[in-house]
Amino acid sequence: MSLLQVTNLSVVFPTDAERVNAVRGMTFHVEPGEVVALVGESGSGKSATATAIIGLLPEYAEVSGSIRLHDDELLGLPDSRMSQIRGKSIGTVFQDPMSALTPVYTVGDQIAEALEIHNRDVTRRDARTRAVELLELVGIAQPERRASSFPHELSGGERQRVVIAIAIANDPDLLICDEPTTALDVTVQAQILEVLKTARDVTGAGVLIITHDLGVVAEFADRALVMYAGRAVETADVGSLYRDRRMPYTAGLLGSVPRLDAPQGARLVPIPGAPPSMAALPPGCPFAPRCPLAIDDCRAAEPELIPVGPDHRAACIRTDQVAGRSAAEIYGVSTEPPADIQDADASVVLRVRDLVKTYKLTKGVVLRRQVGEVRAVDGVSFELQQGRTLGIVGESGSGKSTTLHQILELSAPQSGSIEVLGEDVGGLDRHGRRALRGDIQVVFQDPVASLDPRLPVFDVLAEPLQANGFDKNRTDERVAELLNIVGLRREDASRYPAEFSGGQKQRIGIARALALQPKIVALDEPVSALDVSIQAGIINLLLDLQQRFGLSYLFVSHDLSVVKHLAHRVAVMHKGKIVEQGDGDQVFTHPQQDYTRRLLAAVPQPDPNRR
Amino acid sequence: MTEPVTTDTATTAKSGVDVAAFASRRTLVLRRFRRNKPAVVALLLLVALFIGCYALPPLLPYSYTDLDFYALQQPPSTDHWFGTNPLGQDLLAQTLRGMQKSMLIGVCVAFFSTIIAATVGAIAGYFGGRRDRALMWIVDLLLVVPSFYIIAIITPRTKESGTVLWLILLLSVFGWMISSRVIRGMTMSLREREFVSAARYMGVSNTRIIIRHIVPNVASFLIIDTALNVGIAIMAETGLSFLGFGVQPPDVSLGTLINDGKTSVTTFPWVFLVPASVLVLIILCANLVGDGLRDALDPSARPLRRRRR
Asked: Cα–Cα distance between A162 and A100 in angstroms, integer?
């Protein structure tokens, strides 16, 4: 008997317009002490599956099938009964630790609350002692003192540790982790995975982890279910999944992950198209429209999960075509980087010297007085050459975004100098600054926030042109050209940003940055909000654009693998300073500084043998 | 929805490409608004009422001051379509006259106070710093001034023709503060959004950013605010007229008419019902138009035609 047995689970969200089939017939089990991963892109139904297990789906959702915990059926239990199971038998860790904790109670009280709710006879003092023990277990230093801190006084990683402490407070049998590391820095991610391993060992619980990060799966999980369009399309233990995947989708997912061992400029294997709408699935295999191996039989009927090896199942009738071939072969694309014909003494387009940016810390409401300052950027110097990419890597709070925005402001820095195309921005008047704006443009991280939701795509793209005196005809022409460059259709121009998928929105953002034919493009984490298969397409697009237009990229990212693919030179930032700078390959293969080494070691790699 | 990997086929734009087909924001908003039938009907009705109350009176046999001594307090008939009041005045003529005043005051006050609120709120929120502090100080000052007394003192002293202008001016000046605070807050959160930084980095001027990005993004609030303000302004004018501070007799507004009729609601209902229903109709239409505009401007609002996928 398994700890958790899910049989034929389906979840339907009936909306006004259509019925969304979020989960369609999931069957799997979790054994005690086992880590099972649900992997998939956004919208594949993995979160809906987890939410159905803990019984927190909205009331209008139609759930059918069976979910048995210790052979007790959970589906159909009243909410009051579920409340006794949640937090006691099932612990949950959410993605965002800030919103998972109540800001007005201390973390000690919140852990104690979890204990008191499920054990009536526990005294306040005992709960408090246990809370401190739990904090120590999840690796928080000085647990006695930190128990009386409020959530905002802790760092992101510490908050997630507290959430884990709450989840394991009542010694649960099952731990459900919904993207537990996604909102965290790389070095913290690795630590949190360690804490989760400890938590599993201490409680002996089965773990169901939901993630889109194939690196996390390889590091942490024993068995994985790859989900697509609400169904499992391949299930296997992690070792054989990475070694011998049989479903073209899995092959594509693995091929689209940027790797630390790839050379600069290497193309990734994107999966063409976008996931299907869950309201109107085509007949046959839902992946067929994006599958390079699809034949007519694929479109006729949806394949069942069939065994292809010991404990290895795939929902595909073409598995023999996948075995032993690389993703690039399957998808028929070349990943070879083009020959690097850059001359070493290309002109310098951006030169930053000793850049400093400080924020004053003030106290007092009526009489403000300065009590200190935060050096967000502390003496940063670098150069960017024509047609090259400089990657600035660092964790959150390292000052990398501040540096970028300081450059984009094109105003005199507090100290140091910024030279764009040979002109010192400190000496620019308003007209000079406006003229220079056309040469340096930016692509933001969040494609949703960076496009005005009230403007149709045409107006988004036309805005920089109109602001710089293009007339109607030339604007129309240029917009059509830009859409073409980033691979969108002309009809898309009259639609609103909300109607596009994440990858398409980011393409619009890139098109807008290219509108004025800039020489330098600043990329502020341009792919970190995207799914891996979409991310691969954007990285390829950026590489192509650089080749076609000779663009220079200033690429800011926390994701070292992505930087490895794009950057010729890399600068590693830590606490406002550049701790290491050099050629991309050199920094990644022979890091000189301790911090760089730690960063590199923390990156989860999609390779289960590394464990 | 396919996302092609860029290929080398993407070249520079060919001249002679059909570029006229791009629908801009304005056409899209119009198209979405036109799909909303109740809003279109309400807008037409509102326009008809507005034109009607100015165009009809010269065509009627009675002016609003004429007394018909053969028809005192008569129910609606072919002579007097809406009946007459105790003095024998024609209610249709009176209502139309009242609508002229009330609609003018309501619409103008709503527009002016919303424009002031949007301007002040957007400037204070977008620029911050000294401008913010100065403008918010004015807002605080106006909030503590007893506006009702000031209006009550000033309007009776104005000449007959100027009363309406003064009412519009005073009601607008004292009616924008709360909305402007809301808009300031919304602007401050919008200012941090990336599309505003993107526009700044593209060299778009501050004025243009406020007009093109900030104002449309607070538009749903502005429109609801305007629609509600029409009702509030008409109510304010009614209240003032009732107390004798607003429109002065012998001139009439919807407010004075409703107040005249309120004593005979049960005995001679038409005297009260006619101006009251007109008031309800105006406010209902204004709200429907407001809703329709909000849905048209806000792409996240439920589209009225189901999209085919």
From this structure: 10
3-state percent breakdown (helix, strand, coil) of chain B, nearest 5: 70, 0, 30
Closest Cβ opposite residue B199 in set A279, A463, A504: A463
| Closest by Cβ to A272, choosing from B5, B17, B21 | B5
**Is A464 close to B203, i.e. CB distance below 8 A?**
yes
pTM of structure: 0.75
Determine which helix (DSSP H) or strand (DSSP E) holds B122, and give its type and residue range: helix B91-127
- Phi, psi (rounded to 5 degrees) for B306: -65, 135
A332: left (phi over 0), alpha (psi -120 to 50) or beta: left
- HEC string of A469-484 equals CCCHHHHHHHHHHHHH
Q: Is the CB of residue B206 less than 8 Å from the CB of residue A441?
A: no
Taking the C-alpha atoms of residue A500 and residue A508, their distance in angstroms, rounded to an integer, is: 9
Q: Is some CB atom of chain A closer than 8 A to the CB atom of B308?
A: no
CB-based contact A453 B198, cutoff 8 Å: no
Judged by CB atoms within 8 Å, which residues 165-204 of B form the interface with A?
193-195, 197-199, 201-204
Amino acid at A96: D
Rg of chain A, C-alpha, whole Å: 26
Cα A534 from Cα A503, distance rounded (Å): 6
Q: What is the DSSP string of A492-504?
A: GGGS-GGGS-HHH
Beta strand pairing call for A223-228 and A35-39: parallel
**Which H, E and C letters describe B57-110, residue by residue?**
HHHCCCCCCCCCCCCCCCCCCCCCCCCECCCCCEHHHHHHHHHHHHHHHHHHHH
Strands A389-393 and A223-228: unpaired
* CA-to-CA separations, B94 to B62, B85, B98, B166, B250, in angstroms, rounded: 10, 10, 6, 22, 11
SS3 state at A359: strand
- Output phi, psi for A361, to 5 deg: -100, 125
Neighbours of B187 (CB within 10 A): 25
Beta strand spans in A148-230 (E): 174-178, 206-211, 223-228
Beta bridge partners of A36: A208, A223
Find the radius of gyration of the CA atoms of chain B.
25
Q: Are strands A423-424 and A440-443 parallel, antiparallel or unpaired?
A: unpaired
Q: Given CA atoms B32, B34, B40, B43 in this order, what sign does their dihedral have?
A: positive
Residue keyed to tokens 């090259």: A388
In Å, how far is A520's CA from the nearest CA of chain B?
A: 13
Q: Is B17 on the interface with A (CB under 8 A)?
A: yes
Scored b (16 or more CB within 10 A) or e, B109-122 reads bbbbbbebbbbbbb
- Residue A360: other Cβ atoms inside 10 A: 11
Residue pLDDT tens, chain B, 309 long: 333 433 333 333 333 333 334 556 677 778 878 888 888 999 899 889 889 888 888 888 777 777 777 777 777 777 777 777 777 788 888 888 888 888 888 889 989 999 999 999 999 999 988 999 999 999 999 989 888 888 888 887 877 667 888 888 998 998 899 899 999 999 998 888 888 888 888 888 888 889 888 888 888 788 878 877 887 888 788 778 777 777 777 778 888 888 788 777 788 888 888 888 888 888 888 888 878 877 777 666 554 443 333
Give tens-digit pLDDT for B15-35.
333 333 455 667 777 887 888
At A82 the three-state DSSP class reads helix
Query: Looking at chain A, which residue has its C-alpha nearest residue B23?
Result: A494
Cβ distance A534 to B15 less than 8 Å, yes or no, reads no
For A498, the closest of B19, B204, B300 (CB atoms) is B300
